[in-house]
Amino acid sequence: MNFTKRLILFLIINFGGLALGGWLMANGPGSSWYLQLNQAPWTPPGWVFGFAWTSIMICFSIYLAFLFGQIKTMHLNLIYAFQVFLNVIWNYVFFNRHLIAIGLIVIVLLTFVIFYLFFRYKSEQMQQIRWLLMPYMLWLCIASSLNAYILIHN
Q1: Considering the entire predicted model, what is its pTM?
Q2: Does the domain formed by 3-153 have CATH 1.20.200.10?
Q3: Phi/psi at 72 (5° precision)
Q4: Residue ranges of the domains in the chain?
Q5: Per-residue model confidence as pLDDT tens for the chain (154 residues)
Q6: What gap in Å lies between CA 76 and CA 41, rounded to an integer?
């Protein structure tokens, strides 16, 4: 499969995962449950989340299209599938089921998976392209801190 086809495939999977996660979180950030929580002072305004996830998934899809052109292993397939699962399930666990501690575990695991990709796949061909993971890594650190704050202060 060529780069363009891989890119389209990953865009579909990644944005499909976001859509599924959005559906699973019910009303999510607009719910009375979430709005009544003590939230971190550094919580960004709502519109930032949509912009951030759109940008992250575009960068991540480009990264994956390059990576899967270089590496073709079952291990990488499983890591990617696990990442999709964690990304989708966090919305359900946190927003739908209100399981804040489990949500924190899920998002920290997701953070480790993305950091793992960054540090594991750093061949000469991936040296520059792997920096496309940086927005995802930064956002997950912020999201983990927001989740932890909610756990501690509620």
Answers
A1: 0.94
A2: no
A3: -135, 80
A4: 3-153
A5: 899 999 999 999 999 999 999 899 888 888 899 999 999 999 999 889 889 999 999 999 999 999 999 999 999 999 999 999 999 999 999 999 999 999 999 999 999 999 999 999 988 889 999 999 999 999 999 999 999 999 999 9
A6: 37
